[in-house]
Amino acid sequence: MFLKLMKDLRIIFLQDSAAMMLEYPERRSHAVFQRDIFNTREFKAFLANMKEVLENDRQQTDDPDVEAVLPGVQAQFTALETGQTAATAMLSGKIAGVEVTVRESNQE
Asked: What pTM was computed for the model?
């Protein structure tokens, strides 16, 4: 069972390893990344491809296609953010009121 899991996760492990090597280059010196698999031509090509994908991903944080694929999602996020902002403001007001009450009771 465990070996099947490890076999199933091998591709994910390699993908995550490439991402980690790019995001945290100081970790490349770790013993795990000194294994032969990480020095193959194929892995180096995959690493270059992963770098390109990650750079493009950072540049496309506001993807207009999301709204086309999932209509209404942006509106829902906006509504959630508005609600969160209102709730935060209300809680801040209540906390300020409690602070005043505590200060007044400490002065008595």
From this structure: 0.49
HSE at residue 32, side-chain half, CA atoms within 13 A, is: 8
pLDDT single digits (tens) 30-66: 999 999 999 999 999 999 998 988 887 765 555 566 6
Structural domain includes residue 86:
yes
User: 89: domain range?
Assistant: 74-108
Q: Give whole-number Cα distances, 108 to 89, 95, 97, 98, 99, in Å.
A: 29, 20, 17, 16, 15
Verify that 82 and 38 share a domain, yes or no.
Answer: no
In angstroms, the CA 104 to CA 78 distance is 39
**Residue 97 carries which DSSP code?**
H
Both tokens of 75, joined, read: 């509106």
Q: Please indicate, yes or no, whether residues 100 and 55 belong to a single structural domain of this protein.
A: no
pLDDT value of residue 35: 92
H-type alpha helices, 1-108: 2-23, 41-59, 65-69, 73-107
d(CA 66, CA 60): 11
